[in-house]
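Page 42, continued from yesterday. The earlier attempt failed because a stray header line got pasted into the input along with the sequence. Redoing it now with the clean sequence only.
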Amino acid sequence: MIFRSKYALLLTVVLLLQGGVYYAVASRSELTPQTGALALFPTEIGAWHMIREYPIEKEVQDVLKADDTMSRDYLNAGTQTSASLFIAYFKTQRYGQSPHSPKNCLPGSGWEPTESGTMTIDVPNWQGPIRTNRYVVERGEDKVLTIYWYQSHNRVIASEYWARFWLVVDAIRYRRSDTSLVRVMVPVREDDIDAATRTGVTFVQSAFPAIGKQLPK
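This time it went through. Structure tokens are written below.
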């Protein structure tokens, strides 16, 4: 209970700060960084190559309100494993646009959560391990491992609470509110969640340098 109350207090403080900051900076112009289109993201990343790309349906885009999106399947021919990569980029959150947590979106699509937590992943070209969300969902006989995080301004953030906190800080210091949601999904075969987790980690480690180059610093 104490742990939960601390997070509730943090969220309350952040929301109050966010409201105050947006009121204070409403008259200031916002800086939006230049970034390349996600369509230019590499189709080959290490041992992985793209096998399919999915257009984002208009109904989904109308709800998501992202400025750019990418949804692809990649295959590792050597291990015969696959992973899906989804990136949504928001150049501003000042007018209500913000990433939708997969914890909310996936259940809305009929997927039921069975596991939820965080994990750390060692990635190249970074100052240390990144902390991500690890989420397992199932629908009928299908089960999927999901790894996701929020990325902006050389930060990788798992917690929605801290993502809001840094939104306020960056709005004050840099007049920026851009962010991205990065999500990796791996099918769980033969109910082996550990194997799916290893595949997801391997894919993240291969894709992370390209993700860092694609998204604005």
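Notes: Residues 8 and 53 are 39 Å apart (CA to CA).
Reminder to self: strip header lines before submitting.
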